[in-house]
Every structure is written in C-alpha cells, then in structure tokens.
Amino acid sequence: MVWPLTWVIIAGTLPGVFIGYYIRVFYLPEPRTFKLFVGCVLLYMGVRLFYEVFGRSKNGKEGAKELEEKIRKQRENSFWSCFLESSYKLIFYYVA
C-alpha cells in the first residue's frame, strides 16, 4: 500500500465531507438549489478533467509521470517487496 498517497486522500476527503454537510444542511436546504449547486460543481470538475486528459495541460502529464516514478521507487525500497522477493526465492529453492 502506498501510505503517503493514502494519507493525502484521507486528509483531502474528510474536510470535504464536513464542509459538504454544512453546505447541504444550513445553506442549501431546498433540493432544487442543492441539485443546481451539485450540477455546477460536477460540470466544473468534468471540464477540468477533460482539459487535463486530452493534452491541453502539460502539468497533468508531468505530474502523473513524477507520481508514477515516486511510487515505483517506494515499491522497490519497501520492506514487503524485499521480504516477498526473498521468500519467493526461498520457496522456489526448496521446491526445485
């Protein structure tokens, strides 16, 4: 498991849950206005995602490559990868 990524996702999700609760309950109690607000937020996210996916944003591609490189390095240096690699060698040594 990639723990730094896990903590970033948790830290980014929890404030949104609480802020979303307060916006929904206190500021947008009517279903119609809430649906309009959610529609605008989803439209914004969709346009931004479309912009990043189809090559108009150089930061998105460079950031993805950097993240993949960091994850690959972390996997190579993690305890479990070394443990699993040595245990596989040990198992195949005794089987063969």
Largest sheet: none
Helix content: over 70%
In whole angstroms, the N-to-C terminal distance is: 31 Å
- Overall mean pLDDT stands at 80
**Proportion of beta-strand residues:** under 5%
The unreliable regions are none
Kindly provide the radius of gyration, computed on alpha-carbon positions and rounded to a whole number of angstroms.
Answer: 22 Å
Tally the beta strands.
0
Question: How would you describe this structure to a colleague?
Answer:
- The chain has 96 residues and is mainly alpha-helical.
- It has two domains: 1-56; 58-96.
- The protein has helices at 3-27, 31-53, 58-77, 79-95.
- It is elongated and about 60 Å long.
- The two termini are 31 Å apart.
Summarize the structure.
The protein has 96 residues and is mostly helical.
For this entry, give a set of tags:
96 residues; mainly alpha; 4 helices; elongated
Task: Describe the SSE topology.
Blueprint lengths: L2 H25 L3 H23 L4 H20 L1 H17 L1
